[in-house]
Design a protein that fits this description.
heterodimer, A: mainly beta, 6-stranded mixed β-sheet, 11 strands, 62% strand, globular, B: mainly beta, 0% helix
Amino acid sequence: EDKVVQSPLSLVVHEGDTVTLNCSYEVTNFRSLLWYKQEKKAPTFLFMLTSSGIEKKSGRLSSILDKKELSSILNITATQTGDSAIYLCAASGGSNYKLTFGKGTLLTVNP
Amino acid sequence: SAVISQKPSRDICQRGTSLTIQCQVDSQVTMMFWYRQQPGQSLTLIATANQGSEATYESGFVIDKFPISRPNLTFSTLTVSNMSPEDSSIYLCSVATVSTDTQYFGPGTRLTVL
């Protein structure tokens, strides 16, 4: 059974801090690793990482895929209160394009 | 990315009743999925909505409880049948094209069953 594990489950930091969120996966015929940000109900897409694109960056957010270790990290630098959210990691594999999600990391950024 | 809408945004229902949730996309997409997110939990895939044929359900989910329709490439419905308080969750539809794994999510439906 496919599995995605995220750590930590929750994290509290102060504005300006840098955070690193972790994700490990066990997925048959792994294809992609995705990161989402969930603030209220709907997850919003951040990054997709594959064997042909193992590092992505957008502003203060960046992510790296380590295919050898079957893991990924999401870095957020100079955190802001607006970064407070649940960050979800998901992995895809096989031919049916299903995503398996981790439990998420609840990030709280205090002013 | 596609613009996705869901109706209703939220609802409070009595046990034993059914609720149908609609998902509308502003462009044709290949894949449509329905997820459930129970309180404090992550997203769990209910089924893949197949255009013009029966949905493909994940282990633990059955058609009698969660009937799904997808009459065309831009619209799908999920019905939560004979509801109990355990069905209180956020229900999300997502869409993707066959050329990418990236799924985009609708705004979600928050369901409370009393």
